[in-house]
Design brief:
This protein is α/β, with parallel strands linked by helices and 390 residues long. It is built from 15 helices and 13 strands. A seven-stranded parallel beta sheet has the order 3-2-1-4-5-6-7, with helices on both faces. It has a six-stranded parallel beta sheet with strand order 10-9-8-11-12-13, with helices on both faces. The two termini are 32 Å apart.
Amino acid sequence: MKSLKIKKICVITGSRADYGILKNVIKKIKIDKKYILQLIATGSHLSKRHGYTVSEILSDGFKPNVKIKILANKSNAFDLIKNSSKALSGYANAFTNLKPDLVLILGDRYEIFCAAYAATIFGIPIAHLHGGEVTQNSYDEFFRHGISKLSQLHFVSNSQYRKRVIQLGESPKNVFNTGAVGLEDIQKYNFFKVKFLEKKLKLKFMKKSLLITLHPETLNRKRTKKNTEIVLSVLKKLKNTTLIFTMPNSDIESYDIEKKIKRFCKINKNAFFFRSLGRKLYLSCVKKTDAVLGNSSSGIIEVPSLNKPSIDFGKRQYGRIRATSVITCDFNKMKILRSIKKIYSKNFLKKINNLKNPYYKKNPSKKILKIIEQVKISDILPKKFYDINF
């Protein structure tokens, strides 16, 4: 077994969501002379339908070493598996050419699971961010735990998640609670001003405003259309409210959600649909709007750090630790209306002012690189199953 130190770090990003979170880590790897940054962009980054967000990566000064185009034009189970096949083939070629010492990945997407699978076959150690979390009504749950089992280093966002990764049989000495990397600079952001947002997004902020991101519950796909209709029927009733929608993930049934939202925005002049806002625009909209609605992890992990309310619909994120600013709500018209009324309550807003985000820790990306610096490949490969003494 090699006793080499880690030098070439290959970061893989498959969507706007993980890139925004990984950006600081990528930047620190690039400027650190001890490392060579390798970057692979795949998934919705290369899809025009999803805003071709690889352009955001390029505008930030990062040039992907490899681009792996995988997305089909549909969002069914057959095409998802075809996408996975393309991803595996692409990773095989990329790892053959790049020969990374470490693959660094985040989260729970199927294209990221494919990256972990390919890296394992190539004998490349994996560092995984945001393992140990629970989302009980999405197949992301299975991919996340699967990625953890394929990984050697684990950087989790909460002490409870650290315990869960260890429970999966991972050695405690390789599981680190560094906090959520996406929160590292969120308070220091130079947010866009309202006038710039209105000009850039071609809209006017009314007295009230909401930011909405709705994804399918992939283990409850039969309800996707109905759940979307329920949410839209409630939003239609809101008066003097600007509604900003962002594109759903490229999951099964996601295109059905997209179609319904786009139709809704055509009919309702106070509603606007965006394929991708980019991280700074998105966070600036969070800062300006009254609350974030939907079932995205962002509403649970990032939004609380801006002291904004979130309404989390359904069970896609069920099981995740949440701050007091997050209101959990079923796909039910009356419950959604009550939840929206609650976010404007003075008592509720007073309670969430300066709240503590359970995912926040100082300098997570710096801690991650310091830990990687101390690791030798021989220390983490091969790894043994860690048995808890019952």
